[in-house]
Amino acid sequence: METAFTNQDDERFLNLVEELDKGYYERIGEELSKYEKYNEFTKPHVVILALDLNKPIACASYRVCSEKNVEFKRVYVKKEYRKNGIAYKLIKQLESNIDSSYKYSYIVTGKNNYPAIKLYEKLDYKEIPKFGQFKDDETVICMKKEFR
C-alpha cells in the first residue's frame, strides 16, 4: 500500500467520498441530508489517499478551522480493505503533517458508528460536549485530541 497527499479537488478522493456518502445514505437515510452543507468542501482540505496498485482504496482529510485547530473529515476505507489498520495509518500520517502551531483536532461522527468511535479512541480522541451546529443533535458525538 502506498499513500499520496493531495487536496479536495482530486477525482480519486471525490469518488471515495461519493462511496462514503452512498453508504451513509443507505444506513441513515434522508436524515443525513441535514449535514450536506457541513460536508461541502468550502475550505481547502489536506487529503491523504491509500493506494493499492495505484487504485484508491481509502482516504482521510482535515481542514483548518481556526488558528489553533483542525477538523478531520471524510475518513473512509473501501469495505474489502477494512480491518487492516488503514484508517489509523492515514490519520497518523495526516497528524504528522499538521503544522505545530495547531493545538487541537476535532472529529464529529455518528453516535452509533462504533467502528469509527473505537478508531478515534485508539488515536487518543476524547468525547467532548457537542458544539456549533451539533449542539442539540442527538445523532452525533464530538471528539477532540490535543497535540503536544
- Which structural class is indicated by helix and strand composition? alpha+beta
Secondary structure: helix percent: 25-40%
Strand fraction = 25-35%
Radius of gyration: 15 Å
Along the chain, the helix and strand elements come as: EHEEEHEHEE
Q: Total number of β-strand segments? A: 7
The second-level CATH architecture is: 3-Layer(aba) Sandwich
CATH H-level superfamily: Gcn5-related N-acetyltransferase (GNAT)
How many separate domains? 1
CATH fold label: Aminopeptidase
What separation lies between the terminal Cα atoms?
29 Å
- The geometry reads as globular
The largest β sheet comes out as: 7 strands, mixed
Q: Unreliable runs, pLDDT <50, ≥5 residues?
A: none
| Major beta sheet, strand line-up | 1-2-3-4-5-7-6
* CATH top level label: Alpha Beta
Provide the residue-averaged pLDDT: 88
Number of helices: 3
| Quaternary organization | single chain
List keywords for this structure.
Aminopeptidase, 148 residues, 26% helix, alpha+beta, 7 strands
Give a quick rundown of the structure:
The chain is of the alpha+beta class. The chain has three helices and seven strands, in the order E-H-E-E-E-H-E-H-E-E.
Please tell me about this protein's structure:
The protein has helices at residues 11-28, 86-97, 114-122; strands at residues 2-7, 45-52, 55-64, 69-77, 104-110, 126-128, 140-146. By secondary structure, the protein is an alpha+beta fold. Strand 4 (69-77), helix 2 and strand 5 (104-110) form a beta-alpha-beta unit. The longest helix is centred in the first third of the chain and has 18 residues, at 11-28. It starts with a strand and ends with a strand. The mean pLDDT is 88.
